[in-house]
Structures are given as C-alpha cells and as structure tokens.
Write a structure and sequence with these properties.
single chain; mainly alpha; 74 residues
Amino acid sequence: MKPDEQDRISKLLKQAVPPVEADPEPTRDLWPQVLKRLDQNSARVPWFDWALLAGVGVFAAVSPAWIPVILYYL
C-alpha cells in the first residue's frame, strides 16, 4: 500500500470513528428505564412450553427407565 493511500485511509477512519474519552459516562441514567421495562413485561410462559413439560412428564411416567438417559443428554 502506498503512503498516500495509508494517509487517506487514516484520515477517513479518524473522521468515521469518534475519539474515545478517557472516562466515558452515559448522558443519562438508564436504570429507571430498565426497572420500568421489567415491570411492564412480566414473564409469561407460552402454552407450548407447558405442553412440552406435560409430554416429558407423561413419558417419564410411562417409561421410568429412560429418565437417566434423558438426564444424561440434558
């Protein structure tokens, strides 16, 4: 690569990437927004997860000898 090209690329990179401050601080406190979002989105378990859990329970009740094999693969 020629020195002219290196200088050009260096200048372009300096323009594209802002300088990093020594001790960067966020412009505002994000923790209240995180708490608000956690309160809004309560964890709901989809019906499909309950169906899978019921299927595993039925399978374990029908063939208990397979329980160690299933636990091995988990």
